[in-house]
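Pilot study result, target chain (158 residues):
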Amino acid sequence: MLRDMQKKETTSLQVVCFKIGEEEYGLEILKVQEILKLPKVTKLPKSASFIIGMIDLRGQVIPIINLSNKFGIKEVSDHKNLRAIVVDIQGKKVGLAIDSVSHVVRIDSKDIEPPPPIVRGISGKYIVGIAKVDSGFVVILDIDQIFSHEELSSIPGK
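Predicted structure:
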């Protein structure tokens, strides 16, 4: 995604910015299906540590993923105040539990730096880049790369 943007100097990306702990992250707005206050979550026994459980969203069962656990970030808020960003990851509808949604911002490609060398390992594969915005930095994520094939197949749902 970033490589394509860097080919054209005048391109920009609309990003939904959200917080996990004290850090700000972003997802391309076209990947976001909806944002909601996290309703009651039904826990699943023996599921992966990053799976909080399942919710019923207008008759559709949606697994809820705790991005704090997935990223190894200390949780700041309790589960009662979480929000969920519903996304489609390789054909599977998933809710990403986050602390809060801050805003939507348009970021020019020139303001997005590639991930620094320190994160280019496993975690670097799902970081598109680091964007400079008025409030500081936003880590832009590639939602399709966050989970390995094995992790994605362990997430219940369609």
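One observation from the pilot: Residues 5 and 109 are 6 Å apart (CA to CA). A full batch analysis is planned for the follow-on phase.
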